[in-house]
Structures are given as C-alpha cells and as structure tokens.
Amino acid sequence: MNHLISLNRIAILALVACVALFLFAQPQPLVLSRWSPVSPSVPTIGAVAVPVADVSPLNIVVNDGLYIDERDRLDQDARRAYAYVAARFGSELMSPLTVAFIQDAGCALSGIAYTDIRRVQVFTCNAIGRERAIAILAHEYVHQLQQDRYGSRHLSADLILSEGMATWGAGVYWLGEYPDFCRYVRAQRTNGISHPLATHYAGRGVALMNALYYQWASFVEFLIDRYGRERLDAVYVTGAGTPGSADYRAVYGKDLATLEQEWIAWLEAAP
Fold first, then answer.
1. In principle, which of 87, 135, 263, 266 could form an S-S bond with 173, CB 3.0–4.6 Å?
2. Is residue 101 packed enough to be buried (19+ CB in 10 Å), middle (13-18) or exposed (0-12)?
C-alpha cells in the first residue's frame, strides 16, 4: 500500500507526517510503503466478483481497541483483497503470512512488508476508514507475493518495478473512478503532474512519492500490455535497488529512456 533503497540486507522505513518524510534504515530486509492517500477516500471493489472464502495462508491480527465494531468486515475485506491481488498478480503465497493492523498513535495511515519474516503491517486508527487500510494492505500483499515469486532477487529489484508492480497489483484498491493506471496517469499529466520514471522520491515529499507510484504502476501496465508478463518477470530480477537500475536493454533490446518514450506515446494514444 520509500526511500534510499538498498534492499539487499537493508530496509528503509519512511514515516509520513503530513507532507514530511523521515527515513532511516533497519537491519533486516523488507519492502515497505508509507503512503498518504491523494484522494480523501478509497473505493470499494464495486462490481468485481472476488470470493471472501477463508484464505488459510493468512493469519490476521488486530490491535485491541482498533475497529472493534468492524472486526468481521475487516477480516473478510483483508481476505477478499488477498484473493483479488493474488489473481491479478498471477501467483499465490508460498507459505502463511501474518497480517497485523496496528493502532497508530498519530492516526497516520501507512504500511510495511517484512518479506523475510512473512509479516505485513498496516498502521491506522479508528478515525481512518477501514477501506483505506485495506487499500494499503493490498499494496503490501504484492510485496510478499514478489518475494515468493522472485526469491531473494526481489530484495534488490529496481524501485520502478517493485513499487510499480505493487501499486499495479493493488488495482481497484488504488484506482478510484479510473478503469486503469493508463487513464489515471494521463489525467495526472493533464494536470501538470509528471516526473521522469527514474526519479527517486527519497526526502522529496509524499506528493511526489504518490505521483511516482502511479506512474510506475502505469509503466508496469504498459510493459505487460506491450511486451508480456514473461519479459517483465525477466527484467524484474536484474535490478540493483535504485529507480532505473534494471537491465532493460538486455530484456527488451531498448534502454529505459526509449521504453519511457514508448510508454508516454501509449498513454497519449489510449482511448
């Protein structure tokens, strides 16, 4: 659901307070998201048919006092989100995952995935709607699925691809009224919000981080649409952590700059 990212044996934790980002490293590997929503609410799945059946790999725990009157719905929503994300991502968890909803003292919304110990955490409070916490969780689920699909190479993935895929995989939970990330990002660009794909947001504020997450999700959507998932999987494991570090030329026969221009043309040509 951010950082000077060096995911080999280092984790970066970004704490959001209004528009400030404070960064520090942790000793164990993890992939995280500290996300401040652009819009005031996150939509439900709507007409998308996703089962709510029990998902045995999930162990869901909630802090005392948090969403007391919504525990059953929270549990169902968390399981529904996993079913949706796993289907969209194209693979399942390899072993059980603990999902923890934690009361945030400052009533901020954020998430983190400790992929090495198979634990994702969503920090929230009772003043934050349950559906917004689930939107963050959907993003974090993808990070664990990335670890299970790509193994240790995930920990050094190009940030464009790791966060872009996590945002893309969260799909409807992040799209609002938009049908896809292509149209979402085209609207961003129409409003004058656009950054080079290889931009790093560390220390540059939440607004830029959010804009990049959506751009990166759209770029992942483009790569799948234009070149297929097999090549995306191949390029994912070639990264070195920083945005733009994957070996795009080896996989696509084109450098990132060329692919970025193709992506922009794709955005502009979409109906």
1. 135
2. buried
The C-alpha atoms of residue 182 and residue 188 are separated, in whole angstroms, by 10
- Phi/psi region, residue 5 (left: phi>0; alpha: psi -120 to 50; beta: rest), is beta
Q: Do 80 and 51 contact (CB within 8 A), yes or no?
A: yes
Helix (H) or strand (E) holding 112: strand 110-114
Domain regions of the chain by residue span: 11-151, 156-269
Angle at which helix 159-170 crosses helix 130-150, to 10 degrees, equals: 130
Q: Along the chain (271 residues), what's the average pLDDT of each consecutive run of 10 residues?
A: 30 26 26 39 39 68 95 96 97 96 95 95 97 97 97 93 98 95 96 96 90 97 98 96 96 98 95 78
Least Cα distance to 114 among 240, 202, 214, 27 occurs for 27
Global confidence as pTM: 0.82
The answer to whether the CB of 213 falls within 8 A of the CB of 167 is yes
119-124/11-17 β-pairing = unpaired
Q: CA–CA separation, 59 vs 29, rounded Å?
A: 21
